[in-house]
Amino acid sequence: MVLPALLLGAWELASHSRQLDPRILPPIERVGQTALHELVDGNLIYHLGVSLGRDLAGFGVGTTLGIALGALLGISRLADRLVMPSFNAARQIAVLAWIPLIALWFGFGDPAKVVFIALAALTPVVVNTYEGCRSTSTELLEVGTMLRFSRWQFIRRLFLPAAMPSILTGVRLALITSWVASVAAEYFMTLGPGIGGLIIAGRERFQMDLVLLGMVLLGLVGFLMNQIASLLEGRLLRGRPGTA
């Protein structure tokens, strides 16, 4: 908490020292007043709700597909050889570079934004699920062979439980990247409701207190998501070997 306090102190000092135009860097209290005004008389809750709704929809789609694809690539040698090289090449492309293609395929409305968010969430989940499944110990696989497990039993009782810590790490990363992607989608696609739209509206009106409010909300929500995901991950992994 020391670094945020120092940053807030530097912000307040710079905005009151007349070294910077307060129209460019408004003081914290003005941002607070804008937040109160938008909360009471504006549509702050609505904008936040729209962004969170898009984020959770894209996160859910990307995470579900990511676990399925990562498990397939991690378990099937054939799928690994056929698909993984192309996937590794595609994931080197910055996610923002997909926006023009997604816009051509899905337009500029909410479906395109959800697809973009899902794409951002997909990669970390695939990578971590793949690594988790590939790291399943040979001893466990030999036990499954001795017990004559079916293919589904191998997946349900051996691969997925062994990969669970890695999968949860990928899901936590996807939760953060999908939130950033949701605001990026709102910012770079058609203007509409959401935190990204709030930031654009403040920029176009040269209302920097509104822009900073959007940025602060983006950081706070991302921080809270990371904390909640870490708590859930700890609870789900409690009692496993190697965890406290």
Question: Remind me, CATH topology?
Answer: MetI-like fold
CA-CA gap between termini: 25 Å
Assign the CATH class. Mainly Alpha
Q: Return the domain count.
A: 1
Largest sheet: none
CATH-defined architecture: Orthogonal Bundle
- Which strand-content bin applies to the residues? under 5%
What does this structure look like?
This protein is mainly α and 244 residues long. The protein has one domain: MetI-like fold (Orthogonal Bundle), CATH 1.10.3720. It contains ten helices and no strands. It has helices spanning 2-16, 28-40, 44-75, 77-90, 99-106, 110-134, 138-146, 151-188, 195-204, 208-237. The chain is elongated and about 75 Å long. The two termini are 25 Å apart. The mean pLDDT is 82.
